[in-house]
Structures are given as C-alpha cells and as structure tokens.
Design brief:
Layout (H helix, E strand, L loop, with lengths): L11 H33 L5 H19 L1 H13 L1 H22 L5 H10 L3 H29 L3 H24 L9 H17 L2 H20 L1
Length: 228
C-alpha cells in the first residue's frame, strides 16, 4: 500500500497546465527574468534592486503554483493531516539519510551557496524567505508533485531518475550557459542526493508536505551554516 501512496492525484488540467508551466519555469524564465525586469524598470522609470527582483520573482512563482495546483495541494494537505505521525517519522529519517549521504557524496563547490552568500548581505530577510519557504514550496510541487508523482504511475524507477536529474539540471545549467563551460554540469552530482531523498520522502509518506518540510529544513540549516 505504501508503494502507491505518492500517486499524483492531479487532475488532467493540473497535469497539462502544470507541464507547460514547468517547461517555462525550467528553461525560459531563468533566461528572460532579467530582461522582463528591465522592461518593467523602463516602463515605471525606476530601479529594481536584485533583492526586490528576486522576491517578486519567487512570489509570482508561488502564486502561479498555488493557482495551478490548488486541487492537488488540498489533497496532499488532507493526506498530511491524516497521517502526521508517518509524515514526521519519514521527515526524521530523510534528514538523517540526507546528511549521512552528503558526508560521502557532496562536493565543497556549490554555486548556489555562493550566490546565496552574495545576496544574504544585501537582503538577509528576503533571502531567507526565498530560501527557506518560497523556493522549497515551488520546487517540491513541480519536481516531486508533478514530475515524480505523474511518472510514478508509469514507472517508479523512471520517476526517481528523471525527477532527480531535472532537479539537479535546474540548479546548474544557467551557470554553464552563462560561461559557455559545460563542465559545470558535473556539479549536478551534488544535487542528486537531495533530489533522491526528497522524492523518497514524498513517496514513503504519501504527502508532498513531508518533502516540502524536509527541503525547507535542509535549506534553513544550509543558510545557517553560510551565515555562521
């Protein structure tokens, strides 16, 4: 029964609209966001700081995800409330596995940590809000709720592999493109463990809130380490 716990439970509208949005989110927005903000600056005759642009960007993503996946989110919330004990046990196990695996496989070079460290000084509260709440929510709904949940109905192995690879690709491809150095893609390896653990947390508990909480906690601890 646990093996079927994380079935997507998304209706057809959520699947189709969500897939279109996911492609735009993964491949288009990272390239166009700065240009769009540049247009807004011209139209409003004002300057938008990087920190303000980041929070606007993630709030828009958050709002779109809520709008597109409200039915799925209601269902997974119901699953969480009906199985809090299992969800929290899975959360604790996931946290232990995550840090145990990272000791073995994680590299020291993390481009996103460098980006966070650069922005935390300019806007610590806004950066923390993005890293601890907005980003985990958006990423878990898309990579685990949509990609993993829908693929799992066809193949659990494919669901784990594809969702983990896409999650890792999302974190590094813009760095590779901006420098035209595709060796950056080797850094995808450090995101495979988080992607695997977050997917397992969703799969094992049957509710996306477990992976959201786990992702948020991991990010909060990483942010604490950077600040400290």
């Amino acid at each position: 029964m646990a093996k079927k716990a994380a079935t997507s439970h998304m209706n057809q509208t959520e699947r189709v609209a969500g897939t279109i949005f996911f492609i735009v989110y993964l491949l288009v927005l990272p390239l166009l966001a700065n240009k769009l903000f540049g247009i807004v600056e011209v139209l409003l005759d004002t300057k938008i700081s990087d920190s303000l642009a980041n929070i606007i960007y993630y709030y828009v993503l958050f709002a779109i995800v809520l709008l597109l996946f409200h039915s799925f989110l209601a269902h997974t919330t119901s699953r969480f409330l009906g199985g809090v004990s299992r969800a929290m046990t899975t959360f604790c196990m996931g946290l232990l596995v995550f840090y145990g695996a990272n000791v073995l496989f994680n590299s020291r070079t993390n481009l996103n940590d460098m980006t966070i460290a650069a922005s935390i000084n300019a806007a610590p509260r806004l950066t923390a809000l993005i890293i601890v709440f907005l980003a985990p929510f958006v990423e878990e709904v898309l990579f685990r709720g949509l990609v993993f949940g829908c693929l799992k109905e066809k193949s659990r192995v494919a669901a784990y592999v594809i969702s983990c690879v896409l999650f890792a690709f999302m974190h590094v491809w813009t760095f590779a493109l901006s420098s035209w150095d595709w060796s950056y893609l080797i850094l995808m390896l450090q995101y495979l463990v988080p992607g695997l653990v977050f997917a397992w947390a969703f799969d094992h508990s049957g509710t996306l809130w477990t992976s959201i909480l786990l992702h948020a906690t991991v990010n909060a601890l990483a942010l604490w380490a950077i600040v400290g």
